[in-house]
Amino acid sequence: MQEPLVSFEGVAKRFGSYVAVQKMDLQIHKGEFLAIMGSSGCGKTTTLRMLAGLEAPSEGVIRLAGQAINDLPSWSRDTPMVWQSLALFPFLNVIENVEFALKMRGIGRAERRRRAEQWLERMQIAEFADRNIAQLSGGQRQRVALARSLVVEPEILLLDEPLSALDAALKVRMQSVLKNLQRETGITFVYVTHSQSEAFSMADRVVIMSRGKIEQIGTPQEIYRTPRTRFVADFLGSSNIFPGQLTRDAGGRAAIATPSGDFVLAGGGQGATPGQAASLIVLDTKMQIHFQPPPDAVNTIEARMIGEEFIGATATIYFETGAGQEIRVQKSHEELADLPLAVGRSFHLSWSPADGHLVPE
């Protein structure tokens, strides 16, 4: 098996009594796009800064290409970083900004000019080579920052929320630029963000962190379909969560008793023990809406419609059960066309046991 490009081995970071990153083990593979996401203060940026050499681990070892780099200064690591603020030099023009890292490495003037021009061309900003940074748009500055980091042809590029200052439409375009760039160059990207849409649209694997701890690592599809913890399901916001206690129904099937009802589980409850506290996770796209009680459905619940939200080709309908739990259902407009949707009206919601995912507490 190929050795990982980066390994965090029992790495933790403390600032006095505050634990920013709990003891973690993480491997990053050569040529992959890895996103680290979580809310503010979860430890994602501290993790990136330790890899960049801007923070020293309190314990554990970080390896790059098999070499321990804990004591290696940041300028010797070949791990350039694209910052949220971009950190471009206002006193240099565009091409001089891109040339800067090459100049620091002692590359001759003609060669660094050739390589800088090549990257400006690749980033589709060659026409702005002689412009002042202040004369560029946000998206153009973003491309200059990427060209400046990539012109040294590193093995790995670190990106700390680089799109956060851009407007929504420009973010989507830059996501496409980043994804294509990573695929074309084969450079390993480690991308920190709090945005689920950014991480899931670009990354091969996603790391979700909370309170300095890794909650789950997996492909976007794995994490979206089967969140491993209650926190991950809550954080993604696309699941309905029914906390309760494992039990058996009248037919002896594995089930979960919740304040909103008792629901049958698939696969014998995934090996869970009756009496154990757990949560049933059901994706909002897997729930069906019926005006009349569905005759063949196994898991059904009656709820009152309390609102709706339109998002492009889909709509999210919000319901509330008699127990006060909010439930969301996402459907295409075509699927909703024949339903008499109206706020305050009662409907019956259903889902297959196979579409429920159990998370033990």
UniProtKB/TrEMBL annotation:
Any single Gene Ontology cellular-component annotation: ATP-binding cassette (ABC) transporter complex
Stored SMART domains: AAA
All residue ranges annotated as the ABC transporter domain in the record: 6-236
Keyword entries, A-Z: ATP-binding, Nucleotide-binding, Transport
SUPFAM superfamilies membership: MOP-like, P-loop containing nucleoside triphosphate hydrolases
InterPro entries assigned: AAA+_ATPase, ABC_SmlMolc_Importer, ABC_transporter-like_ATP-bd, ABC_transporter-like_CS, Mo/tungstate-bd_C_term_dom, P-loop_NTPase, Transp-assoc_OB_typ2
GO molecular function terms attached to this record: ABC-type transporter activity; ATP binding; ATP hydrolysis activity
Database matches in PROSITE patterns: ABC_TRANSPORTER_1, ABC_TRANSPORTER_2
Gene3D superfamilies reported in the protein's UniProt record: 2.40.50.100, P-loop containing nucleotide triphosphate hydrolases
Transmembrane segments: none
Family per record: Belongs to the ABC transporter superfamily.
Protein name listed in UniProt: ABC-type Fe3+/spermidine/putrescine transport system ATPase subunit
Organism: Paracoccus versutus
